[in-house]
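Sequence only, no structure available. Ideas?
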Amino acid sequence: MLRPATILSALRATPRHVVLRLQVDPMPDFAAGQAVLIGAPGTAPRRPYSIAVGPQEAARSNALELLVGVSAEGVPGSHLPSLAAGTPVDLEGPVGTFVYPEAITQSAVLFVAGGSGIAPLRAMLHEALDELDQARRPGAAAGRDLRVLYSARSAEEFAFDEELSALARGGRVVYRKTVTRHATPQWPGQRGRISRGHLQSLVDHPDDILCFVCGPGALVHEVPRMLAEIGVAPAHIRVEEWAGPPPAS
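Reply:
I predicted one. Tokens follow.
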């Protein structure tokens, strides 16, 4: 379904991405992990972007958030000639089957992201945190452990890093990150592509964890294989290849 939307803001998230906030009336029903297609009104093609906010959070803020790749000048491409507040856009969707399930039996959830693949996983994390808040109410069932493993090319390219770090400091998630290319000598975190060792440190009970993997092609092919090697059943591994559309040159 095609519906009108309005840009509320476009805030720089990394040197190559902005968080685009959209007001949509009415707000579409969507599942955490789904995407929408957006573009200038009346033009084609529209490009797909994962929704980077959970459904309940979107309802509270009355805004959709998308992680949009941009050029060095801050331009996403010809489909969105302006990111100024108040600019109208056309929105289509939601689309996609890579979603956070309504019912989960595992006691732990692991989100593995590469680059802009963090966008749908952030929406799923929001959903999981909302469920955890419900579980903490008197008489509710116990919650589950939430873990995030995130790889990016450099320390500056971790989108939503402040939010994820704050959640980790508050004990709400376990958050690990690794720089794959440009790590300065001062970088305190891990280095290199996500490895079996990275995963093994976060998978203490392979038979009791649900894993979501999203990012570039190499990551979504390698990580499920390594998870299977350490004992995670293929049925408990959900993947989505999402490098995102190329930024404008």
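The first helix runs from residue 55 to 61.
Hope that gets you unstuck.
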